[in-house]
Amino acid sequence: MPSISRKGPGTKDQGQRTKSKKVVGPRSMVHGPWSRSKEHGIALMLVISAIVMLTMIAVEFAYNAQIEYRMAIRQKERLQAYYLANSAYNLTRLELKLGSQVQSRVAGAISQSGIDIGIDLSSPLCQQFPIKTALFRLLMTGETGSESPTVEGEEPPEPKPGEEVAAMMGGMSLSGLDEFLQFEGDFDSECVDESSKVDLNFIYSQNPLQPAAEGTENGYDQYKRFIMGIIGGPGNEDLIKKADVKVLEVVRNIADWIDPNEVINDFGGIEGGGEDNVYRNNAPGQMAAKNGKLSIPEDIFMVEGIKDGWWNEVSDLFTIYGITSQQGKPQINVCRAPNEVVKVLILRYTETRADLPPLKSQDIEILDQLVEAVKGGCTGAIPDKNKIAQDLDAKLLEVLKASPASGQAAQTAAGYGASGAGFADWIATQSRFFRLNLIGQVRDTVVKLTTVIDLGQGGGSDTSKWKTVYWKVE
Question: Which candidate, 202, 422, 221, places its Cα nearest to that of 318?
């Protein structure tokens, strides 16, 4: 009889329960609440990163757009400022033309009447009435301010810039000016007479080895001394001393850079070796002396010893655009020239007068009287340079207490290496070259335009013969 195994109560259920139990281990924990929290954190980080990246891209895009917008605005303003400066250029040319025409007609009328009016009318119109739209706007608005009552014993307040001119021209008819000024920005002009300065390029026409009469110097050396007198004049003593400028050496370098030969030329026709010793040996990589005329004013800084620290202080006394007479002498418009230039010119002239006692640069009072005599002869629309020369000769005899040479033979002495008729051959009373400094401005954008105009011999009003010899935009 088979044996029957007996199970206790609940044996079967216990087994079933055993089979249904799940083992809880590391694998089962992945799907728990902690796992879902971690997944949510990663998603949040991804979303934040995406937002940050998109924000950075948007900011970069906006920044670049703003920069491009500002650049476009600046380019637009610069273009506007350039054309404003160009407008000043054209208007100044018009002033030069009208001024030349008026002066020619006035000179003709004075010549026919035979009357010396005694005042100088030769000043260029562009210098008498410079174009400044800011001043025109001030005149149109009339905002010169009402006169405030002054307390007895107190000085009246000084006028603000432009108020004097506005008050002086307040009664003039300015109809049409408001329509002309209907544009954005401003422009102004400055007209500088280059013919009133010392021409450096004249050195090129002088021969360093030209024989000179006994006891005198040739024209090359005379002109070098003339330039030395301008640079080292009484008004520049402190500047030259502070900058430790060796005037003799600097002027020699200027002359050697411009003159045609390739050797160093000291005074008295002495040669001091090749010019390369000054440039290529002492400053490797620098070009040798040009041995030709300066092409633009900035070329002067290639000359050894010329530094902007001191040269800029005297540069307004020099030019590279000069007038030369038919006798081969440089001519300076003494009616427009600075007094220091006229003084040195008189000193150089008196050295050619054997009938006069020596005149030194230290004779300030005498030189002032001589300059006054020269400037006093600048009368009429086109001053007579022969009259100026006669006035100077008479004043020289007076202040130096000298007697005139018989037949004025002394006036045929060499001046810059060529004989001439005296002081009249060294000067001019009409200008040929004008430098125009023009500015156009729109808000904070400024464009500077510098140009030099050659009006031709005699400074005529025929603009078809005018030439632009220099043009620079900054």
Answer: 202
- 374 and 436 in a single domain? The answer is no
DSSP bridge pairs for 198: 318
**Residue 119 belongs to some domain of the structure:** yes
Q: Based on the fold, state whether residues 214 and 121 are members of the same structural domain.
A: no
Q: Which residue has the tokens 């440039």?
A: 279
Q: How far apart are CA 429 and CA 384, in angstroms?
A: 7
First-residue to last-residue Cα distance in the chain: 128
Same domain, 386 and 263: yes
Contact 185, 136 (CB under 8 A): no
Write the pLDDT tens digit of every residue in 350-378. Answer: 888 888 888 888 888 999 999 999 999 99
Tally of structural domains, the chain = 2
71-123: per-residue pLDDT in tens?
999 999 999 999 999 999 999 999 999 988 888 888 788 777 777 777 888 88
CB distance 417 to 218 below 8 Å: yes
Question: If we measure between CA atoms, which residue out of 183, 209, 322 comes closest to residue 267?
Answer: 209
Give me the torsion for CA of 46, 51, 55, 61, rounded to 10°.
80
Tokens of 276: 């390369």
Which class for 382: exposed (0-12), middle (13-18), buried (19 or more C-beta within 10 A)? Answer: buried
Please indicate, yes or no, whether residues 344 and 418 belong to a single structural domain of this protein.
yes
Q: Which residue range is the domain that position 348 belongs to?
A: 197-317+331-428
Residue 436 inside a domain? The answer is yes
CATH of the domain at 129: 3.30.1300.30
- Residue 12: both structure tokens together: 């079967």
Q: What does pTM read for this prediction?
A: 0.77
